[in-house]
Amino acid sequence: MAEHADAAGEEVSITTKDGVSPVSTGAAESSSASLDEVDFESVDTPGEENADASTAEDEDTGAEAGEDSAATVAMPTKRAVRLALAVGSVALIGLSALVGWFGYRDSQIHHASEQRNLFLQVGRQGALNLTTIDWEHAETDVQRVQHSATGAFYDDFSKRSQAFVEVVKKTQAKSIGTITEAGMESESADEAQVLVAVSVKTSNSVAAEQEPRFWRMRITVHKTDDGAKVSNVAFVP
Question: Which of 203, 196, 212, 132 minimizes the C-alpha distance to 145?
Answer without folding.
Answer: 132
